[in-house]
Design goal:
Three copies of one chain form a homotrimer. The first copy, chain A, is α+β, with helices and mostly antiparallel strands. Chain A has three helices and seven strands, in the order H-E-E-E-E-H-E-H-E-E. Chain A is 29% helix and 27% strand. The radius of gyration of chain A is 15 Å and the shape is globular.
Chain lengths: 157, 157, 157
């Protein structure tokens, strides 16, 4: 039933090269499937074990840097999904993106930051598979990161 | 199987008029169904595109104002569900309510604020469909809002 | 199909005695099952109605105290699951642990705190049922608690 599954082709067309899938920072795994739902662990803007965007968006980091952090976390999520599934063509829907943004209480531009991840997933999976979304501000995130991304995918049985 | 589905009648009995369903602030949709679960995007205390309760509960806003914000976000969630499903009678269970409250570190009265949304859903869907719940304090929320509500519903297949 | 379900035996072998299951602080229930997924409400480091670890990890509380708070919330989650299911042997997978940690913006040691809950669940359910995980910093949590734990379990139909 991969008739509409063009994600791998889109990745190539867009010239997106996925990073190696991140590995856990503790006693958990990066992806768990239950039924048709694939729950991916909180993705950070990391390369290997190194945090690349550290600080609060709107204080130490600009909105543009926050967006780059969200994009990088998004790529890590795609890498985890591909490693688990073998092919991103098995994704039938992006069910939920949850975006946590380290920020002070004055910050209001959450949608701009979150859109960098959302637009990446739209470009890879297509607008017809666009997700629901939750975006919140966090007091802090693991390793001091600026953004954490939650991903729930619907996948072929 | 709408034998127990009296939500629409209850809405009328309670004199609750739903607002127009909110529309996204970014690259996402307001509701995604996967199997029997309907994931609704983070609902805010907004009317149209305007945030109605801005600031931290316990600092700029009182607990009573925070409760009104939670109720308003709850109404928006019902409006999204009704638009997606056609009728709230198709809801077989409120699975999860997640309530994020913008607050300082001194705030402790989360349950009071969250109950305004929970009690709304209980009054509409009935106590036998009461949800599980997660309530946390956020450093900030989109548009500066005081409350964000996550809703996961179980719906007829 | 409880062939692999050795959680109850492991609990005994480890000498873990579960506390009484917590009861809600508001208009919600502690567990909702939909299909094979059991959604447990946000668990706190409480005994009865009393919060045992209050304050920010890294400020008023040490990382070690935060870990104890996460462990205590984890035990409460097991107590809720056992009360709902009758036996923890019905758990086929720990799908998701979500850990919120009250913290200032300088805090970075989230994985250490969260691991206290994750390792508890691994020791009870086995490494082959290890969860995905989301860990974030919260500005505040209900009752002033240091940690809140979200648990989603996959259970026998």
């Amino acid at each position: 039933m991969s008739v509409n599954g063009k994600a791998e082709q889109r990745l190539r067309d867009l010239g997106i090269e996925l990073p190696p899938a991140p590995t856990p920072f503790g006693a958990y795994v990066e992806a768990v499937q239950s039924g048709n739902l694939l729950f991916i662990s909180g993705m950070l803007p990391t390369a290997g074990k190194e945090a690349k965007y550290v600080g609060r968006v709107g204080v130490e980091l600009s909105v543009a840097e926050g967006s780059k952090a969200a994009y990088m976390a998004g790529l890590n999520g795609l890498a985890v999904a591909k490693e688990y599934l073998g092919s991103l063509d098995k994704v039938t829907r992006v069910v939920r993106l949850g975006v946590s943004i380290t920020s002070s209480s004055e910050f209001k531009e959450h949608p701009k930051v979150a859109d960098a991840a959302s637009e990446l997933y739209e470009s890879v999976f297509g607008k017809e598979k666009t997700s629901s979304r939750i975006v919140v501000g966090s007091s802090s995130l693991p390793l001091g990161c600026a953004v954490l991304l939650e991903v729930i995918l619907e996948v072929e049985a």
